[in-house]
Amino acid sequence: MIELAEKNAVSETIEEIKKSSKERKFRESIELAVNMKEVDLSDPKNRINEEIILPKGRGKDLKVAVIGTAEMKTKAAKVADFVFGPEDLGKFAEDKKAFKKLAGDIDFFVAEATLMAGIGKSLGQVLGPRGKMPKPLPPGQDPTPLINNLKKTVRARSRDRRTFHVPVGTRDMNTSDLVDNINSVVKRIVGRMEKGRGNIDSIYLKTTMGKAVKLDLEAIQ
After folding, report:
1. Cα distances (angstroms) measured from residue 185 to each of 2, 57, 179
2. CA distance 213 to 16
3. What does pLDDT average to in each consecutive run of 10 residues of the chain (221 residues)?
4. Measuring CA to CA, which residue among 61, 38, 41 is closest to residue 49?
5. How many C-beta atoms surround the C-beta of residue 97 within 10 A?
6. Cα distance between residue 137 and residue 68, in whole Å
7. From CA 221, how far away is CA 213, in angstroms rounded?
8. Domain range 64-150, CATH architecture
9. Domain 7-59+154-219 carries which CATH code?
């Protein structure tokens, strides 16, 4: 099984980056910087594009929007940050500039499955490149479980670059919780690589504004 075998080594790195980075006036994220090797990223199938649920959560609120008919909108009203109906799709398509700004403020979209074709046609050019095409839900299904999971989800997306970043929590989170989150992310990424650990050149950990500290790859089995 692929896991971070030495939790102490990872904990020490977390404590190091917390101590070395001065306090900021905003809640800093903690993120992994993953450097790949021996991967042909000109072939899209070799690129990393994973959504990973963090077992201990993100440490901050994420915004989720639901697009659905009246019944779905009612069910989503108490759990989603934004709720839109089919009537809004035309407005968004007419003012792409405003929708781009809105999409930038929303982390995940969820849509009733019957609306997906229309969303793809009218808004796919905005949402697709941002990796924010909606998650489809069958008509009438309660969106609460999906929304709750999305609020704990991070994207690991390499595109065509050998280095990519993945948030694993926030600086004010408990160190043990951050270790669990890092463990889940590394497992998923290594499991996605053709050569597993052999495709990882190095992994660094950093706060939003702090310096990067290298994680000991020997701690990864």
Report:
1. 11, 12, 10
2. 8
3. 56 87 80 92 87 94 94 94 94 92 94 95 92 92 95 89 92 92 92 89 90 77 45
4. 41
5. 8
6. 9
7. 20
8. 3-Layer(aba) Sandwich (3.40)
9. 3.30.190.20
